[in-house]
C-alpha cells in the first residue's frame, strides 16, 4: 500500500518537472524570438540614421544601373552584391530590372564536362524573372552535357526567353555541342537580338550548322562574330544577317566558293574582320565585291595568303585597311605584282600595319601598293620590334632606298606604338634628335603649319633646370614668337587612332587670321621646317611600360622638351625666331618646356 503511494508521488513529481522544463523551453524560445525582433528593430533604427539611407530611391536606382555597367563576373555579380547590403537596398535592387540583365552560365574549374550545377541554373532562372522585359545579355560557356535532362530543361527555359536577348554568346563548347545549343534558341523569333558570338575554341576544331540560324528571324542583328565555323555553313546564317553591319570571321579555312557567296550576300556590311587559317585561291575565281565595306582587317596565319586576300577583295567605299600576319612567318607582300591596289580600294585613306618589325613588311612595297593614303598606323611587334621605332617608319616616308621619290605624298598623320622597352631618361635626347632629323627632311614644297603651344613643365628632371619659366606663352605677330607672319597658337588635338595612342603635334596660323600662302623661304631650312610632318605629325609612344611616368607621350616630359628645344634652336639659328623668345623663357636654352598635347 505504501509502495503504491510512493510510486504515484514519483509519477506526479516527474510530470511536474516535465511541465517546468517544457515551460522553460517555451520561455527560452520566446526570449530568442524577442532578441531577434529586437535586433531587427535595432537594425531598422540604425538604417534610418545610416548615410546609405539618405539618398532617395530613384537616385539609388540610377547609381545601381550605372554600377551594373561595370565589369563583373558570375561569382561577383554587381546586382547580387548590392542586394545584400541592407533590406531597403535589396528591395530597390530586386525592383531594378537592368541589374540582372547580364547572365553567365559557366562552370567551375575542373567541372568542364559536368552538368550545370543547381546553383547556376537557379541563379539564371532568378535573374531572368527579375529582368522583366529588359534586353538580356546571356553567355553560355562550356556546354557539353546535352544528354542531361536537367540541362535540356534549363536550355528550353532559356530558349523560351530568346525574344528578350540583346546579346547571345555561346563559346568553348565543342563543335558538336554548339549547334545543339543553338537549336534551343531557334524555336522563337529573336526579335531584340543585337549581337551574336559563336566560338568553339581553337582546341576543338570547326563546327558546322545543319539548319538555318534563327529561322523565325532576327531583324535587329547587326554584329556577329563567328569563330571556327565551316565556310560551307555560312549560307545558313544569311537570312538573319540581312541587316548585319559588323562581321568577324576567325579561325576559318577558305576552301570553297561559299566564302565569297556569303560575303557578297550581306547588303549593308561596312565592317569586316578576317582572321584566316587558310585561304585557297583556287576556289576563288572571281573577286569578292563588297561595295558597302568601309573597314577591313585581315590577319593571316599562312605564308602568301595575305597577298591573295587583299587582291581578291574589291571594296570601292573602303576607307580603312588593317593588315597583319607577316611577323609570324616572315611574310612580305608579293613583290612580283607591279600594279597597285588603288583600283581595289579607291577610297582608302587609313592604313594600319600590325606586328611590324624592321624587316617585315617592306614599307617601300607597301607605299607602292597604297600610295594615296593620308593616315598610317604601325603597331610594332612585341617580340621582334625592339629596334623598330618611328625613325624607321619616317625614313621610308621621306624617301625610298634609291632616293628617287617621296613616299605617300598625301600622308599627314603617323601613329607608331612603342617597342615595349622603357626608355632611359637621358637617352631620349638622342632618340628625339634622330626623330627631328627625320621629320625635318626636305620636301619638294612648303606646307602650312597647324597649331601648337609651349608651356613650362614643373615635373621636368633636368640638371640645367634652375627656375620656373614665365606663364604659358602664346605668341602674337608683334612678339618674337612670330614666324614670317605666322603665330604659334594653342593646340587642341584629338587622336583618331583609338584608345592608348598619344597626342597630336602641329603648328598653324593664328585663329581668325587669313591663311596666306607660305612665304618664300629665306634659307634652305625653312622648307624643311614647313615639312614638319607635312601638316601634322602624330607621335605615339603608347606602351604600357611608359605609364609609370603617367605620360603616354614619351617616358616623361623630357622628350617633348628636347623636341621643342631642338626646333627652336633650328629656328633661331636660321634667323626665323628672335632673341625675345629666349628672353621670355628665362636663362638660355629652354630645356624646361613641353608641347601641350592631348593624351588619352
UniProtKB/TrEMBL annotation:
InterPro entries reported for this sequence: LRR_dom_sf
Lineage top rank: taxon: Eukaryota
SUPFAM superfamilies hit by this protein: RNI-like
Protein name from the UniProt record: Uncharacterized protein
Amino acid at each position: 500500500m505504501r509502495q503504491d503511494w510512493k510510486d504515484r508521488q514519483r509519477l506526479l513529481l516527474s510530470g511536474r518537472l516535465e511541465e517546468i522544463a517544457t515551460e522553460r523551453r517555451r520561455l527560452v524560445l520566446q526570449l530568442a524570438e524577442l532578441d531577434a525582433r529586437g535586433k531587427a528593430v535595432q537594425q531598422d533604427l540604425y538604417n534610418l540614421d545610416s548615410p546609405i539611407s539618405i539618398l532617395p530611391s530613384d537616385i539609388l536606382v540610377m547609381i545601381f544601373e550605372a554600377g551594373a555597367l561595370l565589369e563583373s563576373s558570375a561569382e561577383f555579380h554587381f546586382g547580387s552584391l548590392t542586394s545584400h547590403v541592407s533590406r531597403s537596398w535589396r528591395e530597390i535592387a530586386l525592383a531594378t530590372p537592368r541589374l540582372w540583365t547580364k547572365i553567365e552560365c559557366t562552370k567551375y574549374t575542373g567541372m568542364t564536362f559536368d552538368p550545370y550545377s543547381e546553383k547556376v541554373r537557379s541563379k539564371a532562372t532568378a535573374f531572368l524573372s527579375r529582368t522583366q522585359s529588359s534586353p538580356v545579355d546571356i553567355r553560355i560557356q562550356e556546354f557539353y552535357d546535352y544528354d542531361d535532362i536537367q540541362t535540356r530543361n534549363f536550355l528550353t527555359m532559356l530558349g523560351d526567353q530568346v525574344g528578350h536577348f540583346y546579346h547571345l554568346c555561346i563559346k568553348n563548347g565543342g563543335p558538336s555541342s554548339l549547334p545543339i545549343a543553338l537549336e534551343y534558341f531557334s524555336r522563337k523569333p529573336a526579335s531584340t537580338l543585337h549581337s551574336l558570338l559563336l566560338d568553339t575554341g581553337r582546341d576543338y576544331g570547326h563546327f558546322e550548322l545543319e539548319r538555318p540560324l534563327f529561322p523565325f528571324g532576327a531583324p535587329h542583328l547587326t554584329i556577329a562574330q563567328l569563330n571556327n565555323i565551316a565556310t560551307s555553313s555560312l549560307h545558313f546564317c544569311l537570312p538573319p544577317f540581312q541587316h548585319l553591319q559588323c562581321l568577324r570571321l576567325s579561325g576559318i579555312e577558305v576552301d570553297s566558293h561559299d566564302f565569297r557567296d556569303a560575303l557578297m550576300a550581306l547588303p549593308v556590311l561596312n565592317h569586316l574582320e578576317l582572321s584566316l587559317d587558310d585561304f585557297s585561291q583556287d576556289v576563288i575565281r572571281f573577286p569578292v565585291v563588297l561595295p558597302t565595306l568601309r573597314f577591313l582587317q585581315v590577319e593571316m596565319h599562312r605564308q602568301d595568303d595575305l597577298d591573295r586576300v587583299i587582291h581578291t577583295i574589291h571594296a570601292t567605299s573602303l576607307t580603312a585597311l588593317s593588315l597583319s600576319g607577316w611577323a609570324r612567318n616572315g611574310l612580305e607582300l608579293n613583290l612580283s605584282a607591279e600594279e597597285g591596289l588603288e583600283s581595289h580600294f579607291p577610297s582608302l585613306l587609313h592604313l594600319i600595319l600590325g606586328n611590324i618589325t624592321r624587316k617585315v613588311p617592306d614599307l617601300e612595297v607597301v607605299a607602292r601598293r597604297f600610295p594615296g593614303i593620308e593616315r598610317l598606323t604601325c603597331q610594332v611587334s612585341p617580340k621582334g620590334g625592339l629596334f623598330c621605332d618611328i625613325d624607321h617608319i619616317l625614313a621610308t616616308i621621306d624617301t625610298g632606298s634609291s632616293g628617287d621619290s617621296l613616299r605617300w605624298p598625301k600622308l599627314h598623320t603617323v601613329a607608331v606604338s612603342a617597342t615595349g622597352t622603357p626608355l632611359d631618361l637621358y637617352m631620349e635626347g638622342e632618340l628625339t634628335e634622330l626623330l627631328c632629323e627625320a621629320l625635318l627632311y626636305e620636301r619638294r614644297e612648303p606646307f602650312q603649319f597647324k597649331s601648337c603651344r609651349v608651356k613650362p613643365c614643373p615635373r621636368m628632371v633636368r640638371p640645367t633646370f634652375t627656375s620656373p619659366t614665365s606663364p604659358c606663352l602664346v605668341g602674337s605677330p608683334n612678339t618674337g614668337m612670330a614666324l614670317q607672319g605666322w603665330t604659334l597658337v594653342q593646340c587642341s588635338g584629338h587622336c583618331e587612332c583609338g584608345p592608348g595612342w598619344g597626342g597630336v603635334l602641329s603648328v598653324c596660323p593664328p585663329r581668325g587670321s587669313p591663311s596666306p600662302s607660305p612665304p618664300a623661304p629665306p634659307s634652305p631650312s625653312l622648307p624643311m621646317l614647313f615639312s614638319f610632318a607635312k601638316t601634322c605629325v602624330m607621335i605615339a609612344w603608347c606602351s604600357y611600360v611608359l605609364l609609370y611616368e603617367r605620360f603616354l607621350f614619351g617616358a616623361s616630359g623630357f622628350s617633348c622638351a628636347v623636341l621643342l628645344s631642338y626646333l627652336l634652336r633650328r629656328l633661331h639659328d636660321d634667323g626665323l625666331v628672335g632673341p625675345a623668345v629666349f628672353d621670355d623663357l628665362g636663362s638660355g636654352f629652354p630645356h624646361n618646356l613641353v608641347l601641350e598635347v592631348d593624351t588619352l
